[in-house]
Design goal:
Layout (H helix, E strand, L loop, with lengths): L12 E3 L26 H9 L5 H10 L12 H10 L6 H15 L3 E3 L3
Helix pairs in contact: 2-4
């Protein structure tokens, strides 16, 4: 909310549980899979689909945990995922890491509301 703006409404984020069957809520659902398994500049277009995806974190965790080698998953290219895996060889469950990071981030935000409310 901007200072001096009496009518502004504070933004609220919804806390939600981890989505087990994330594929049914994915922003890329219904797209031609060939659009996600691309090279070069086309990868940026594929990544833009992930930007507002409600299950981006779940998708990325799945790709990292299963060492998916090709395509854009969770907003990351295969090269980006390989680099992350090399930097963090100690991680056994990316789901646990990403789920924990998301929960910590949402807990620190003062305007978070629970999805159960």
């Amino acid at each position: 909310m901007k200072a001096g703006s009496e009518n502004a409404v504070p933004m609220k984020m919804t806390v939600r549980n981890w989505v087990e069957d994330w594929t049914i809520a994915a922003a890329c659902r219904g797209m031609n899979p060939d659009e996600l398994f691309v090279q070069g500049a086309a990868q940026n277009r594929a990544k833009s689909v992930c930007a507002a995806c409600p299950v981006r974190t779940e998708c990325l965790a799945d790709a990292l945990d299963n060492r998916v080698e090709f395509g854009v998953w969770g907003g990351m290219t295969e090269r980006e995922r390989r680099a992350l895996l090399r930097r963090r060889p100690d991680v056994r469950s990316w789901r646990k890491v990403l789920e924990g990071k998301r929960e910590a981030y949402l807990r620190q935000r003062p305007s978070v509301v629970s999805a159960s409310n």
